[in-house]
Amino acid sequence: MRTTTLLPRYKDAVHFKDFWTKGNGKLLIDFSGAEVSFKDFEKFSPYYYHVDETGDQVVEDIYFTKNFREATKEIEQYIRNGVSPQENVPESVKKMFLQTQAIPEWLNHDLLKSGAELCMRANLDSLISLRNYCLMGGYDFAYLNKPLIATEALKKGAVKRLSETLDFWVNVTRYNALEIHKKGYEFAIKTRLIHSYARLSIRKHYKKWDIENWGEPINSWDMVATYIGFSLVFLHSLHKLGNTFSTQEEEGLFHLWKYVGYLLGIPEQLLPDNKKQATEFFYLWTSIQPPADKDSILLAHSLLNESLENPILKYKFQRRNLRYLHISCTWFLLDDEVCKRLQIPEVSNRKAFPLTKRFINKIYNKVVSRKQRIRKGNKDQMKVLTDYLSITQNSNFH
């Protein structure tokens, strides 16, 4: 691990102070009961220069020694059949799969189930939260987005990027999805190797990478921040939209993402167990991130305009209306200052849809049984995913 000394360089900056004293950061502290300070900064900061070396070595040994299709087929065999200590495979492959096949002592299957049920039960609010709070809010952290720019993610298009994120999220949040050899487990392993492949490609081809400021590409601390997005920020968004959840569901959500993080090769000690820990970890990480820059704005507008480009809805007026609803939710879920930095357009009556949604949720959660909500949420989320995959898996889409 690199020995560069990292300081909380933006702790006195206006954007950092505003976020944590009067913006969503303040709401997160109130929501979680966190006690934020910089006392643990030096414990976490070295991970800004730390990466998943095991995953990187697997990519070098498998993907860089044969064509992509052959390499993927080989990895899929290891995922689906497992790897034994005696097997004649590269040492890196053995090391990674013996780690991911080892069930950690702390894993609780009841909590995994509760976390998956919360993700399904929240139905389309889950997808609204992922898109308009987790993804869009993440674009305000300028350095976090540099790997997306370096790998030319904008050229791929927001529809494709959103489809890939949705495919991953849905498949790791179903019942028993993370059991070894199951689909969620497969998605976690493949995503881990995609991160390694991207990191090695950036190091090789992107000569402008600023390691001092941006850290290692897709470093362990940035990965923790991303998975705090899927847990803490996601939970806070559901709360803002009027959803309620039990203590068991809340613990389950963090437990589920802790295990996903473990499979992705994030050091276990960095993965938060609850919303208090997650907020305290997030506070430290945000102190090294500058606010949105021109790349952030490009990414934000690409996501906003995805609704107009996406052919799932047949008519232009439907697409324009969907864009309006997403813009309304973005203004409702994010700080006004963040929206202004990302140049989110102003729209009329922007609070109408999210406030109506919140009102309906409070009634719906009381009159419809939990079991019915889980069943319907799973069905509706799978329908959205199927629609996206039907578009993006068509080679003529681009």
Automatic annotation (TrEMBL):
Q: Which residues form the ER-bound oxygenase mpaB/mpaB'/Rubber oxygenase catalytic domain?
A: 154-354
Q: Which domain of life is it from?
A: Bacteria
Looking up Pfam families in the UniProt record yields:
MPAB_Lcp_cat
- The residues forming a coiled coil are none
Output the PANTHER family linked to this UniProt entry: ER-BOUND OXYGENASE MPAB_MPAB'_RUBBER OXYGENASE CATALYTIC DOMAIN-CONTAINING PROTEIN, SECRETED PROTEIN-RELATED
Q: What is this protein called?
A: ER-bound oxygenase mpaB/mpaB'/Rubber oxygenase catalytic domain-containing protein
